[in-house]
Amino acid sequence: MTIPAPMLRQLVLRDNLTCQWCGIEYPALRGYPIVPHHRRNRGAGGGVHQLAELVLVCSSHNGEFEDGLRDEPLERGFRIPRNNIVSAENVPLIDYTGTPWLLTNRGTRIRGDSDVPPTQIPDQTSWTP
Q: How many other CB atoms sit within 10 Å of the CB of residue 5?
């Protein structure tokens, strides 16, 4: 199922067109596009229409997550276990800088090691998928 354009726009703005695993930025990817990665597989209870379930990664790392790289993605919150009933909003994602973030379904990120309120991502209608 295709991610709706407004949601994809919020995802791109939140993650700044950067692979949240390794930090490489688009367009410096040289053949590895940035893709939405589902933290919890849709067949395992994940929702395609929930921003907390999605994170941008380069296609190289997305492929590694699918082909066998399992432990570190689980530890860093890029994977949420199949039978985990906890909301993705409550599973920290540790990005390429080592910073823990709580991702919300509103398109915000809250730094996981502080009490800073979430920052709303501005609506940028000039970007199109």
A: 11
The total of structural domains in the chain comes to: 1
CA distance 30 to 57: 14
129 found inside a domain: no
pLDDT in tens, 15-60: 999 999 999 888 765 666 888 999 987 665 555 578 999 999 998 8
Residue 114, pLDDT > 80, answer: no
89-120 as b/e: b if 16+ CB within 10 A: eebbbbbeeeeebbbbbebbbbeeeeeeeeee
Residue 81, C-beta contacts closer than 8 angstroms, at least 6 positions apart: 40, 44, 74
What is the extent of the structural domain holding 14? 5-111
- Asked if residue 125 belongs to a domain, the reply is no
Coil, strand, or helix at residue 60?
helix
Are 56 and 35 within 8 A, CB to CB? yes
116 within some domain: no
